[in-house]
């Protein structure tokens, strides 16, 4: 006798509906962290009842959109060659990281409004681990400073990335200049 699966399998149309809702939420929340769920449902081509049938609360919807954005960002960042000299690898990582952060900055704002700080840290675990490992490797290679805690250096890098995204949205930094500004700032901060 077959054992029932622990979680019932969703119908294909329900999966498509969920994907459309998450995609619409990512798009709308990325441009306006206060986007209304009614607008998200409309953009997804579903009714409010359908949206709330899949996501019981705004927090669940925001978390799903934020998680999806982090997954997509991780795919981008995982493709970057981080081997060899840590300074050069950091330059390559920053060139892509600032863009990923810029695209999801407003979505992070939405997440911070409805999710506990601990949950946001959990969701950021992979990017933090990637940066931590690269900084530690640079410290071992003697190209990154060791007089400050690694966790502090990682946090400063993330603040610089988020700061660049804020400056771009405010019109004080040109998107075409961001990669260079971020890289120079972080490299000078990390240099021995």
UniProtKB/TrEMBL annotation:
Keyword Oxidoreductase: no
Residues in HTH tetR-type domain copies: 15-73
InterPro entries for this protein: Homeodomain-like_sf (IPR009057), HTH-type_TetR-like_transc_reg (IPR050109), HTH_TetR (IPR001647), Tet_transcr_reg_TetR-rel_C_sf (IPR036271)
Keyword set includes S-adenosyl-L-methionine: no
Start-end of DNA-binding region: 36-55
GO molecular function, one term: transcription cis-regulatory region binding
Keyword annotations from UniProtKB, A to Z: DNA-binding, Transcription, Transcription regulation
Pfam families for the chain: TetR_N
Protein name per UniProt: DNA-binding transcriptional regulator, AcrR family
Annotated organism of origin: Nonomuraea wenchangensis
Phylogenetic classification of the source organism: Bacteria, Bacillati, Actinomycetota, Actinomycetes, Streptosporangiales
């Amino acid at each position: 006798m077959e054992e029932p699966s622990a979680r019932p399998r969703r119908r294909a149309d329900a999966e498509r509906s969920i994907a459309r809702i998450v995609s619409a939420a990512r798009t709308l929340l990325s441009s306006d962290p206060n986007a209304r769920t009614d607008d998200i449902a409309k953009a997804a081509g579903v009714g409010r009842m359908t949206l709330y049938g899949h996501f019981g609360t705004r927090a669940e919807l925001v978390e799903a959109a934020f998680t999806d954005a982090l997954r997509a960002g991780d795919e981008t960042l995982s493709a970057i060659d981080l081997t060899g000299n840590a300074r050069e690898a950091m330059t390559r990582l920053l060139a892509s990281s600032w863009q990923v952060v810029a695209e999801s900055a407003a979505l992070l704002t939405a997440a911070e409004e409805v999710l506990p700080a601990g949950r946001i840290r959990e969701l950021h675990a992979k990017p933090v681990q990637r940066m931590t490992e690269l900084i530690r490797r640079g410290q071992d290679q003697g190209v990154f400073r060791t007089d400050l805690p690694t966790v502090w250096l990682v946090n400063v890098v993330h603040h610089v990335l988020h700061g660049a995204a804020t400056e771009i949205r405010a019109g004080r930094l040109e998107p075409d200049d961001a990669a260079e500004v971020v890289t120079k700032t972080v490299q000078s901060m990390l240099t021995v």
